[in-house]
Amino acid sequence: MTFTQRIDDAHRAFALPGARDRYGPDKTVEVEEILLTLEPRLAEAVLDGVCTTRMRALDEPVERLAFDAVDLAVSSVTKDGQPQEYRARDGRLEIAFDPILAAGERCEVSVVYRATRPRAGLFFIAPSAAYPHKVAHCWTQSQDENARYWFPCLDYPHSKQPTETTIVVDEGLFALANGDLVERRDEGGKTLFRYRQEIKHSTYLMTMVAGPFEEIDLGTAGAAKVPVLLYALPGRADDARRAFGKTPAMIDLFEERIGTPYPFARYSQIAVSDFIFGGMENTSATTQTDRVLHDERAALDYSADFLAAHELAHQW
Q: Which domains does the chain have, with CATH numbers?
């Protein structure tokens, strides 16, 4: 084999025969912030939401904007408080700006919508005749491009922004989203949880989980003494601690080996039923499958350390 042949082999294309190039969508606006207000209703498998997107037009005027939005029942769209014309079709929410958004101009677009039993992105778990012992809760899974099933957005990884998520649930339930828990209050039989993620992240890393979860405090970790928390459904707290109890030590080790502090205000892991993957590295709030929660006897033969370490490593 000649030297030239070896070079050619080293740079051989990895695409399969017949594969075609795919390019990201053109950007006409820069999303500067997403604010979600969500109310999941577990018994009805319904999510009522308001998605407010703060954006800035780039170097050209913007007459129209299309959000990714699949099967969302939209009841109103406003720009800076003024109603806008819109049309939902083919998995997109098309908005006609009036007046047109000038180059460099900022605006705030709010969409009021409902998601009912989505086919992807948001999953409602409930007891049934076949599985009467299941606990009612809901969780999202936004990777790869499934955030669009539970809120309207520019659902592509090149759009990164801070987020704020407010979740309202029945009193006695818990809700988790990305970032720091900046507000929690009870009012009128409901509990409001508000989370703030200051570090920009993609929509596929956004999350929402709600249900009767128990909190397990694992203390703090890392140079910044970040709170480390676990959440499990009733009766599974001890199993969750067995599965993920080494997470603070993992954070300390990763900081030492990587040389960069853990970046977020806290780190949570929440174990849900019927999860479609092993885990998902949503920024600061990993969703884990409850299939790795074992009792003392099973834990002698099985460790979830690999899963905890894998999803934690994504946080860097």
A: 29-210 (2.60.40.1730), 213-313 (1.10.390.10)
